[in-house]
Design a protein that fits this description.
Length: 512
């Protein structure tokens, strides 16, 4: 008899959809991080005894709920600010959700093909390994979309202690193993308090202890940094008549900061191409930097030999430039432009055909520091952030979060930035036009953040750091190799023993 005699298979399918739809509550701004363990546990439990086809379907439904709710802000970006008609924007979001949901569907289908006499192999090795591998593939497939990884939900929890060792995928792995332990405890209640609850407590204790180790040390004296949030509406930003008033606003907000070493403006803060900005204005900024002994980091758009770049320039003691390397599909470039260029012309999104900067770019020096720079959602790719290490003594991300409006995205992006600080044990400074701008310490804690949708200036003293975490040294390859080994061990165990996983599993696996 099925374990779920109280429910039909279709009702169980619906539970998977509901569990996925609730999973975004584990992430910012809700931060109900225990749900990051419990809701995947629901899916893992409902995978037990399923045929591969049914398991794939349930994984797909879970993914539809998870991404349909958790990335609903994409509609806001495409329709409200990207000028895409509502039906086309809605269809794009649906297709995007279906593509993302294919990853948990693939995990479900693959794990359903493993059959073991030892249920611990299935739940504690195979499923967590496949889940993390799917997250990793999603981070680079079709330029990558590393959103809503389970690890991000645990930034406030003890499990985040794994981040300096194995990065966000390592945190995802311990989250998935935790969910598997919950399921094993429910399936084998006689051993619940003897094995699985102590096992779960031990795992969390190890993660907490791992997070107490210091990998970085202070270097030099503390510096004072200022984040400028101008709250310029997108509708006004690229209007020529508004240019001078916007530039004056940024300067006035910057002038409020006294006794500061570094002033940071958001992504594309200057409302024109860099070569269009009045040279007298730039001279005025340089003079202000010299008179106040401070440096500027300013988001700009460049033109160079027919190419356009989303960049950050340094003005002051150490002039330099960083060009964004990882561009946003549809927002900054159009994939397969030879066949879909008409869409770019139809949408008429301002400055949406950029070129990528060189992968290897020299470090930016400002305020006496070597700075690891990223623009917009580049900081969602931990393996790219660590390219600046161990030389960089602090991290800076500039962003234009007005594209997301009053949605989940700015809060999720702040949580992602917190993970980068945890992985690298560096201070992360985040300057966003409409917020959330924030100073994040090397433990991933938000020291101060701005309110959204109002002009704001934050000045904070921070301590530059040196040194390298294991993750900064080795990147994602340690955890990816580990998960491949776990999946391989499961495969070996299947071939060696090759019997049914659970005594209640019937020959007609579609029954559940």
């Amino acid at each position: 008899m099925s374990r779920f005699g109280w429910a039909t298979p279709r009702k169980l399918d619906s539970i998977c959809l509901l569990a996925g739809a609730l999973l975004p509550l584990a992430f910012a701004p809700f931060k109900l991080f225990p749900l990051g363990v419990l809701l995947p546990a629901v899916l893992f439990w409902l995978w037990i005894g399923c045929s591969p086809r049914r398991a794939a379907w349930r994984g797909f439904l879970f993914g539809c709920g998870m991404f349909g709710i958790g990335t609903s802000w994409i509609y806001v970006s495409l329709h409200t600010y990207g000028n895409m008609p509502a039906p086309l924007a809605g269809l794009t979001v649906v297709l995007f959700t279906v593509i993302l949901a294919a990853f948990p569907a693939l995990v479900g289908g693959l794990q359903g093909r493993y059959q073991h006499s030892n249920p611990n192999v299935q739940l504690l090795l195979v499923i967590p390994a496949l889940w993390v591998l799917a997250e990793w593939v999603r981070s680079w497939f079709l330029t990558g979309f590393p959103w809503l990884h389970l690890g991000y939900s645990q930034v406030p929890s003890a499990l985040s202690g794994v981040a300096p060792w194995l990065g966000v995928y390592g945190v995802s792995l311990v989250v998935a193993v935790s969910a598997a332990l919950v399921v094993r405890g429910l399936c084998d209640r006689r051993q619940l308090w003897r094995r699985y609850v102590p096992g779960l407590a031990l795992l969390w204790a190890i993660c907490w202890f791992a997070g107490t180790i210091n990998w970085t040390q202070p270097v030099g004296d503390p510096i004072r940094v200022t984040l400028v949030q101008a709250n310029v509406p997108l509708a006004a930003k690229w209007v020529p008549d508004q240019r001078q008033s916007i530039l004056e606003l940024y300067f006035q907000l910057s002038a409020r900061a006294s006794d500061t070493d570094l002033i940071i403006w958001p992504e594309a803060a200057m409302p024109a191409y860099l070569d269009e900005i009045d040279s007298q204005y730039l001279t005025h900024l340089r003079r202000h930097a010299r008179d106040t002994n401070s440096d500027f980091l300013i988001g700009v758009v460049e033109r160079d030999q027919g190419k356009y770049y989303n960049s950050v320039v340094s003005l002051g003691s150490g002039p330099g430039i960083y060009r964004k390397r990882h561009l946003v599909p549809l927002g900054e470039f159009l994939p397969f432009k030879t066949v879909s260029g008409w869409l770019l012309n139809y949408l008429n999104i301002p400055m949406s055909d950029f070129s990528a900067g060189e992968v290897k770019q020299g470090p930016i020096r400002a305020a006496g520091q070597t700075i690891g720079l990223s623009i917009c959602y580049e900081d969602a790719f931990g393996e790219e952030i660590i390219r600046a290490l161990p030389e960089a003594t602090l991290l800076v991300n500039v962003s234009e979060d007005a594209w997301f409006g009053n949605s989940l995205a700015p809060h999720q992006r702040l949580q992602i930035s917190r993970m980068r600080a945890l992985e690298t044990r560096r201070v992360m400074l985040r300057a966003a036009n409409t917020g959330l701008s924030a100073v994040i310490d090397s433990r991933g804690e938000v020291v101060v953040h701005t309110p959204q949708f109002q002009p704001y200036v934050v000045t904070q003293e921070i301590q530059p750091l040196q040194g390298a975490t294991p993750y900064a040294k080795f990147g994602n390859w340690v955890v990816i190799t580990l998960t491949c080994l776990l999946a391989g061990l499961g495969w070996v165990e299947q071939n060696r023993r090759g019997s049914r996983i659970f005594p209640w599993k019937s020959s007609r696996r579609e029954a559940v």
